[in-house]
Structures are given as structure tokens and as C-alpha cells.
Amino acid sequence: MPQFPPVEFLTSSWQPRQFPADQGAEVAFAGRSNAGKSSALNAITGRKDLARTSKTPGRTQLINFFALNEQQRLADLPGYGYAKVPEKMRDHWRQLMGRYVETRASLAGVIIVMDSRHPLTDFDWQMLEWTGAQNLPVHLLLTKADKLGRGESMATLKKVRAEVGDGVTAQLFSAVAKTGVDEARKEVLTMLAATPHRASDTAE
């Protein structure tokens, strides 16, 4: 299994003004609160404790940034769709993520994490609309694939790919069984190596 470059926690942001300098390339991880986003981020980076996992969904309340080097970062976005969070907090999360996706020039791609047993919820489609409007590369991780039989998981993957169309890629993933970890790492590193399309736009 190929190694992911060393990555360290950089900062947490409650407001856009707290984001790190908007330069280089950044890949964001998004997904429902109970989709296994933190576990996926830890598995891909090869770090057990990079992103905090919890049995209580909705724990990630800030955008957490992690640095590979001075020019490459990962961003862990707040989990969306968790009903037990106060409405005021949900509104803040939506505004924070909207501003991030719509204005972040260094954003080179987005990994959307969704439970393979419940893919493409309304919140997932909203994130796809945001990223699509910005013409951002998107890769879907259908997590917890170990909880489905092979036939069912492959049928789910085929259905999701058909629904999202050719502009979005998707794969099966399991942090527990390490299914698809290599493929996901390759996608993240490919996004980081590309020049973000909005970086040049901002400079003009």
C-alpha cells in the first residue's frame, strides 16, 4: 500500500477570515455526519488520530485544515445533515461551507463521503450542486462497503455512477476492511498535484 505524505494539523476555522492563506492546492472532505468521514480521512492519510472520530455524529463543528507542506492542504468540513444540532448551528455550517466552496481559490477538488447503504441524500445533492457550480473535480467515497455483500455493493456503485453522470467519479470504500484506500489516496494526491482552476482566475 503506497504511503501518504506526512500531514499535520494546521488550524481550525469558525469564520472565513480564519482560513489559512489561500494559496497552493487544497482538497476538502465533505459528507453527512454519520457517513464515516473522519475514519476515511484517517485511513487515506495513514494516521489513526488525524481527524477525531466519535460515536456522536456532528462532532466536527469547524473547518479543520491539515498541511502536507506549505503549498498543499486537506480540509475537513463540518458534517452535514445531523438533526440534533440546533438550527442556528446548522445555518452557520451551511453558510461557512457555502463561502468556503464558492470562494476558496486554492480548492482543487472535493471528496464527498457517503454511506454506501444510504447514498445521495438531499444534503449530498446540495454539495454536488455547490461543487458543480464551481466546476470543481469531485470524487465520491461510498463508505462502509464492508457492511454490504459484494453484489449489493457493486449494484450500488453502478447506480450512483449512473445518477451523478460522467463529471463525477465514485468508488467503494471501507476504512475497516481497507477497501479502496489505495484508489482514494491516488485521487486525493492527483487533485493536490493539479493547478486549482480558480487560482489563476483569482490572479487575473
Output the structural class: alpha/beta
Strand content: 15-25%
Which shape, going by the Cα principal axes? Answer: globular
User: Whole-number radius of gyration?
Assistant: 16 Å
Q: Could you characterize the architecture of this molecule?
A:
- Helix content is 36%, strand content 21%.
- It has helices spanning 37-45, 87-103, 122-133, 150-164, 181-193, 197-203; strands spanning 8-13, 25-31, 63-67, 72-76, 107-115, 138-143, 169-172.
- The radius of gyration is 16 Å and the shape is globular.
- Helix 1 crosses helix 5.
- Helix 3 links the parallel strand 5 (107-115) and strand 6 (138-143).
- The longest helix is centred in the middle third of the chain and has 17 residues, at 87-103.
- Mean pLDDT is 88; it is low at 54-58 and 199-204.
- The protein has 204 residues and is α/β, with parallel strands linked by helices.
- The protein has a seven-stranded mixed beta sheet, with helices on both faces.
